[in-house]
Sequence to fold (114 residues):
Amino acid sequence: MTSLDAVSSSVCHFVPRPAALDAPQIVRFKLEPDGATLKAKGRPAWALANLIRAGSRGCTPISHPGPRWAAYIFKLRKLGLSIEKITEQHEGAYPGHHARYVLRSAVTVIGADR
Fold:
């Protein structure tokens, strides 16, 4: 059982729930409702696993540090995934803004490999 088991999102379905989704190199999934089978590799696979786990909370480069979130999202969108970008302001020593990415596509995870 993985931490993905705790996700209570109506958007994502998990069959089976491989432990490899904790740090995947490849994620195989179906894009619902048409059922197109797709594959994300490398860091985009890691980003997809994080987006699935985060559900409607989404991911930010602050909450889920990764060097190139925008590039991962670009590649996932090219696969046909709908991912919303929400621009948020932040304060602190270096005030500015950052993106929050939320997976809006319904996906069914088929499997994952490390």
Summary: The chain has one domain: 3-113.
